[in-house]
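User: Can you write out an input/output pair for a complex, sequences first and structure second?

Assistant: Here is one pair. Inputs:
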Amino acid sequence: MSVSREDVLRIAQLAELDVAEEGLPELAEQMSRILDYVAQLSGVPASDNLKPYVPGPDAIRFRSDEVAPTPLAFGPAVFAPAFKEGFFVVPKLGQFE
Amino acid sequence: MSDAKAVADRLVKAKRLNALLTPPKDLRKSLLAQAAAARPTGVLYGMPIAVKDNICTLEFTTSCGSRILEGYQSPFEATAISKLKAAGALIAGKTNCDEFAMGSSTEHSAYGRVVHPLDKSRVPGGSSGGSAALVAAGAVPAALGSDTGGSVRQPASFCGVVGIKPTYGRVSRYGLVAFGSSLDQIGVFGRSVHDAARVLSVISGRDSRDSTCEDRDPLRLPTVPESLQGFVIGLPREYFPPELDPAVRRACDRAIRMMKELGAAVREVSLPHTAYAVPTYYVIAPAEASSNLARYDGVRYGPRFDGSADIRALYRATRGQGFGAEVRRRILIGTYVLSAGYYDAYYRKAQQMRALIAQDFRNAFDRGVDLLFTPTVPSPAFKAGEKLNDPISMYMSDIFTVTANLAGLPAISLPIGRVKGLPIGGQLIGQAFLEDEMIEAAYALERVVPATDEA
């Protein structure tokens, strides 16, 4: 199995996502299967000079630098989970490792 | 002009499908208000159009089929919605979908699975399964969906309706909740090619609010052709493997014969990197999703799942409880393939494969092929629960549709027959921004193919 229980916990921490302890073995197994499956790409020859393909225009289109009115029908006081005196209210900042 | 009350009644009657997320009371009230305000001169005057729940509307909440946006009322609406309203259409509620459009069966919604309109034991496809099911059930003539890897065409095929994914950049994505930003397009479902195409023509065209939307006029609808004289249709041999469901093959063979009878020249072509499309997609799409879904953290909008001591605990609790299993899995896969030490092996490699897949299409079109014809899905609708615990088997349902997203090309699925009563779709893939040619050929095929006959 390519993904261990510890790998899942490390990735979940990077993704800021709680994963349930009891779900870890199944998650590790499913992630392993998916990653093993997509790993077949490593066997396909491709030149290192191959430019990544992204659809859409070749260059960013410039437009005039004008301030447009906000399209919001109502502000964050309505849609935020907690909002006070113009600020989003959150718990105190934790220790970032 | 359809009667707003009758529209609401038809939608509420389809309740058994679990395809609509808007409560009946809200739907009725809004439809009556919209009908009173609709522009009588608009080209879609009075046409009710249901909208996938990942497209922002002011009339209804937008949950994306997720707990993390439960009850979320967007403060703005998508450009596609503004254009529909300006054309006189009625926004006929929000449709159930796989959470954040991640899935191929509409079983991954926090609000329950959508039922196939012809067989309640089966799935309608996904992720835009609610939109497809409502059109198939006759509740609305057209609906909007989104297509990142086949999420319009695959459910269109399963439900026996028409589904169009336009060229990347044809339709503004302002107000479409982002999943895989280099792949996503808003698409259209219709009972007929004409219904789907005329809705597409209304929502297409430039938009200063989306920098990936090309600076082009709206799509002009072609006329229905008498024949397919002058069309060269390519059949990619990789899309007709020996293990293809025999009924799907028979339906395709019949459609191919009919296109020949209409005067089209048909020739076999090869798209040699097709086999790598699904693994390529399942690196690129989760990578982009893990980045796009980082915004859901319980701070600025949507519900907050807390009881937490500090902000990181708040993020983790909200995301851990707010996202469902498939979304969590894809965020983790996406984070993994983008993390230090794995980026080159997975993400960079997938980007290279994407370039090769796009090159395959260019080679085919450079050799004089106008359009490609393929099955939309390798099989008819599968049973609910059949693939739920086997993500790779579920992903393989997209094998014939993901390539058009990877290459940014337009594609349409239309019904071409049935097997044991279940619809089968055929897909036409066009060249970038040549939707008119693709729609013209679809018109011709639709007129002759016995879409509801057994293949």
